[in-house]
């Protein structure tokens, strides 16, 4: 009997590790399949979710274009929607991996708060971007001047606005600084006043010069005939009588009309012998004939 107990004990000692290994292998296969399926499903969710997000964002953009939604709103809203949709997809991916999605959202919110506190300037630019979209002091395509910078608005982004200058330069302006400083928008009105300041000599006939310059404005096709045309004395300068030549042209024709009028004014004044004086100084020598001449006396 004792011999049989020894044999059973020896078998238990030998077979127990194999049983434990079998149990561990079974557990590993079970858990491994679960983890593997979680990873595969999470990866598929990520790929399909991002693909659907891209399609959805493009669909929304097309609908905005079809409904003639302002380009400024489209360029500002589309990136926000893209980020929002991808964040929702990531929430589902976290759930597929077996983590608590609400905890992930809470952690994401905490990270967002910390980043927001670290980037307060960026948040102010973001808020200013929203205000620009809502109140529309300008939109994409407008020609604006702000903080010594001028050009056509290329895009209004989340944090900044991009303008293109007439020299072909690209200037990026923070939305916060742009919204909180004066902005001159030349594109709100259809027409823009064009000023040509020209000087004539004091010896020239003003009425003749006025008639010649008004004729120049009448002949130019880009000058709007329904609005006033002005040729008046602007100031009496040191070497010339400065005239204000003013008219209205369309915004799209401004620079073309600018070059045409300046050239036409020069030619018209030359053809009519009206001088355009340059700064100079006249010296007048006064001869006093009554002054007595005292001869030099030699006392030697």
Automatic annotation (TrEMBL):
Species for this entry: Empedobacter falsenii
InterPro entries: LSM_dom_sf, MS_channel_C, MscS_archaea/bacteria_type, MscS_beta-dom_sf, MscS_channel_2nd, MscS_channel_C_sf, MscS_channel_TM-2
Family from the record: Belongs to the MscS (TC 1.A.23) family.
Pfam family for this entry, one: MS_channel_2nd
Predominant localisation class: membrane
Membrane-topology descriptor: Multi-pass membrane protein
Boundaries of every Mechanosensitive ion channel MscS domain copy: 122-187
Protein name per Swiss-Prot or TrEMBL: Mechanosensitive ion channel family protein
UniProt keyword ATP-binding present: no
GO molecular function, one term: mechanosensitive monoatomic ion channel activity
Subcellular location: Cell membrane
CC per GO annotation: plasma membrane
Domain (Mechanosensitive ion channel MscS C-terminal): residue spans on this chain: 195-276
Organismal lineage: Bacteria, Pseudomonadati, Bacteroidota, Flavobacteriia, Flavobacteriales
Annotated TM spans: 35-54, 75-99, 105-135
Keyword field: Cell membrane, Membrane, Transmembrane, Transmembrane helix
């Amino acid at each position: 009997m004792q011999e049989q107990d020894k044999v059973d004990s020896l078998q238990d000692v030998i077979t127990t590790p194999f049983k434990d290994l079998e149990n561990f292998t079974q557990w590993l296969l079970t858990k491994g399949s679960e983890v593997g399926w979680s990873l595969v499903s999470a990866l598929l969710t990520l790929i399909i979710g991002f693909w659907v997000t891209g399609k959805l964002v493009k669909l929304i953009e097309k609908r905005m274009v079809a409904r003639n939604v302002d380009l400024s709103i489209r360029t500002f809203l589309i990136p926000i929607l893209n980020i929002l949709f991808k964040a929702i997809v990531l929430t589902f991916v976290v759930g597929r991996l077996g983590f608590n999605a609400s905890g992930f959202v809470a952690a994401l919110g905490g990270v967002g708060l910390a980043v927001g506190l670290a980037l307060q300037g960026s948040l102010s630019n973001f808020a200013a971007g929203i205000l620009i979209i809502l109140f529309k002091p300008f939109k994409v395509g407008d020609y604006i001047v702000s903080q010594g910078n001028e050009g056509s608005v290329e895009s209004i982004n989340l944090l900044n606005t991009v303008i293109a200058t007439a020299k072909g330069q690209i200037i990026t302006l923070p939305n916060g600084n742009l919204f909180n400083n004066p902005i001159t928008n030349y594109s709100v009105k259809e027409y823009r006043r064009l000023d040509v300041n020209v000087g004539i000599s004091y010896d020239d006939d003003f009425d003749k010069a006025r008639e010649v310059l008004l004729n120049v404005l009448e002949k130019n096709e880009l000058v709007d005939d329904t609005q006033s045309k002005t040729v008046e004395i602007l100031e009496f300068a040191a070497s010339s009588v400065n005239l204000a030549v003013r008219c209205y042209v369309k915004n799209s024709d401004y620079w073309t009309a600018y070059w045409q009028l300046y050239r036409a004014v020069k030619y018209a004044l030359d053809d009519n012998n009206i001088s355009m004086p340059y700064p100079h100084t006249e010296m007048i020598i006064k001869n006093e004939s009554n002054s007595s001449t005292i001869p030099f006396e030699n006392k030697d």
